[in-house]
Amino acid sequence: MNDLMLLADNATTYLPTAITGVDFTQVLNEITAIAPSLLPVAVACLAFRKGISFMFSILRGA
Question: Phi, psi at residue 21, to the nearest 5°?
């Protein structure tokens, strides 16, 4: 039980210093870098779903 308390104490002192060392501007830069390739993929997926739905509605009506 004492080992668990020691681990919890170490985690509470280590976690805030680990988070302050993270540079979130790099994360934002990576997200903005991947957006131009992600947007056409998302639009294509939505168009594919809409096309399949349209085809099924045509087949059901026939």
Answer: -80, -5
Can you give the chain as a three-state secondary structure string?
Answer: CHHHHHHHHHHHHHHHHHHHCCCHHHHHHHHHHHHHHHHHHHHHHHHHHHHHHHHHHHHHHC
For residue 41, give Cα distances in angstroms to 16, 36, 37. 37, 9, 7
Bigger pLDDT: 39 vs 14: 39
Specify the length of the chain in residues: 62
What is the pTM for the complete model shown?
0.50
pLDDT confidence bin for 26, thresholds 50/70/90: confident
Tokens 């934002």 belong to which residue? Answer: 28
